[in-house]
Amino acid sequence: MKYTSSTTEVPDVPAVPRHIAIIMDGNGRWATKRFLPRVAGHVKGVDAVRTVVEACARSGVEYLTLFAFSSENWRRPEEEVSLLMRLFVTALDREVSKLHANNIRLKVVGDLSRFDEKLQSMIAAAERKTANNTRMTVTVCANYGGRWDIMQAIGKMVAAHPGAHDFSEEQLAPHLAMAYAPEPDLFIRTGGEQRISNFLMWQLAYTELFFTDTYWPDFSKESLDEAIASYQHRERRFGRTGAQLAEKTS
Ligand code: IPE
Ligand code: IPE
Ligand code: MG
């Protein structure tokens, strides 16, 4: 199946989402509710990541994208930011060989230049190690912002076409950080908020949105099944009428 842009062509609609993108929110509130420090929620959140990676691979999802740290999360107290960085290092350390053994490719996207060198080289090593794996691609968005992504892509596009003044979507798309993946079919946000928080601003144009009050550390295989079931009941029209769709499928 080739990757199509949802705005320039009507894409195929897979029964099981090929690409699921998740805002893993609610770790802090999960911990606070239990009178625990916020970091306990982040630690527990890593277990939920493991569960969801496994469940997605078993369901035949090809791309799973996880928002781990936004370009705005630097605004948090320094202590929480540094704990999150340490957690990122330990999780990479522990999980990469498991991902590799399961034929899963790991990608980390975002402005990685702001991370310390040790973390940057661990990320590069993990990506190298898993680069040829084919079962599923897990993308972790770290120091990622949808606006950052669009701006960096514009910079590269302009440099690739010196002197040009008119540009098309097709010229921009290959420079976006996740150009290797189709646009997400299903977006999930846990934790009760109903907003995009500067996640994949460009790529979510026609993605089906699913919001749940479940805090991320409590998100289970059953929660994922519920989100996929909801997706399977949607009518993805991409601008057309319901009657046109019925005609196509009859
Ligand atoms: C999401 O959980 C994890 C990150 C943003 C790193 P939060 O830490 O935002 O949890 P809440 O929203 O405060 O409960
Ligand atoms: C979005 O969650 C970012 C991640 C989950 C990494 P936030 O908790 O930072 O979002 P806001 O601040 O509530 O919009
Ligand atoms: Mg939050």
The helix/strand series, from N terminus to C terminus, equals EHHEHEHEHHEEHH
Shape: globular
Work out the helix count. Answer: 8
Briefly, what CATH class?
Answer: Alpha Beta
Largest sheet: 6 strands, parallel
SS content category: alpha/beta
Q: How helix-rich are the residues, as a percent range?
A: 40-55%
What percent strand?
Answer: 5-15%
> Roughly how many Å apart are the termini?
22 Å
Show unreliable segments.
Answer: none
E-strand count: 6
Q: How much is the average pLDDT?
A: 96
Could you say what the CATH architecture is? 3-Layer(aba) Sandwich
Rg, Å, rounded: 19 Å
Identify the CATH homologous superfamily. Answer: Decaprenyl diphosphate synthase-like
Cofactor: Mg(2+)
InterPro entries: UPP_synth-like, UPP_synth-like_CS, UPP_synth-like_sf
Active site: 25, 73 (proton acceptor)
Keywords: Magnesium, Metal-binding, Transferase
How would you briefly describe this protein structure?
By secondary structure, this protein is α/β, with parallel strands linked by helices. The chain has eight helices and six strands; from the N terminus they run βααβαβαβααββαα. The chain has a single domain (19-249), classed as Undecaprenyl pyrophosphate synthetase (3-Layer(aba) Sandwich).
